[in-house]
Amino acid sequence: MRFRARSTTAAASNDLTPMIDMTFQLIAFFMFVLNFSEVDQDERIQLPASELAKPPETAPELPLTIQVTQDGTAVFAGQSLSLAELRIRLRKEAAILDYLKKSPTQATMIIRADAATATGRVQQVIEVCQSSRFEKFALRAKQEE
Amino acid sequence: MRIRHSVISPNKIELQMTPMIDIVFQMLAFFIMTLKIVTIEGDFSVKMPPDSPQEGSLEDQMLPPMTVRLRADSEGELAGIQFADRDFPSFAALNQYVIQLVGSDRGPGSMADTAEVELDADFFLKYRYTMDAITAISGYVTPEGEVVKLIDKIRFSKPREGE
Lengths: 145, 163
Hints:
Largest interface: A-B, 53 and 54 residues
Order of helices and strands of chain B: HEEEEHHEHEEE
Largest sheet of chain B: 5 strands, mixed
Number of helices of chain A: 3
Number of strands of chain A: 6
Radius of gyration of chain A: 27 Å
Strand order of the largest sheet of chain A: 1-6-5-2-3-4
Shape of chain A: elongated
CATH topology of the domain at 62-143 in chain A: Nucleotidyltransferase, domain 5
Helix content of chain A: 25-40%
Oligomer: heterodimer
Structural class of chain A: alpha/beta
Largest sheet of chain A: 6 strands, mixed
Helix content of chain B: 25-40%
Number of strands of chain B: 8
Strand order of the largest sheet of chain B: 4-3-2-5-8
Distance between the termini of chain A: 72 Å
Strand content of chain A: 15-25%
Structural class of chain B: alpha/beta
């Protein structure tokens, strides 16, 4: 029995419309969730959770962020510092604010401390800030799920 | 003179999809790469002027600062909560006590407005317990999801010797 080979001359054409639809939807999704704001999150810090932690309605004036890692190291402007080094850095920051005709009392020190770090270490960091004339603090926590 | 009409092809006009798909996939790759998953964070504002025992002037203070004493065990875990000379088994109990203490009075000059709480924690107490104490004192969330503030003047005592 002979089988005749079936040949076709038409080029195979896939319908690309669903794929393009889906891709545009993905692009739209990622564009909406894209966050260009500078977040000072550090993967070393696991913030404590609080049910009252709501994002502030207005951004703090002159924010300066200090992170305190689990082992108690203070991280300021991306650098791990001892308390003595932190004191020197903060005095420089205060001098810069004075030069800009702004008082350190106007600045808000955002303290991002790890949930497992010692409370005493956070208090020491706050004392160092106070010695550099900073007096407004924002203790940061993550929103409880 | 004969005008030759343009020949209309009966075939469909094929659009070149390849460049568009290329750029669309590049955009998609860019947005996926730049995606940052950010957890929602909030702040507890604390105003602590240096060398000042209390926030505000003495005239503003209707009550002396109440102290929340948080004790830690050798592992840094919470060993005890004390507030206004009373022991509390949990932060929920502390929160209930503060709700009773402050009551529903929220106006100027009220207890919620004037009271100040000082946190006195052991040096090695894990910070999450301190944050739990701040949460218990600061307010609570109603079943409707509304945040009710209690005492928002919170300060730290001097760090206890521990190192």
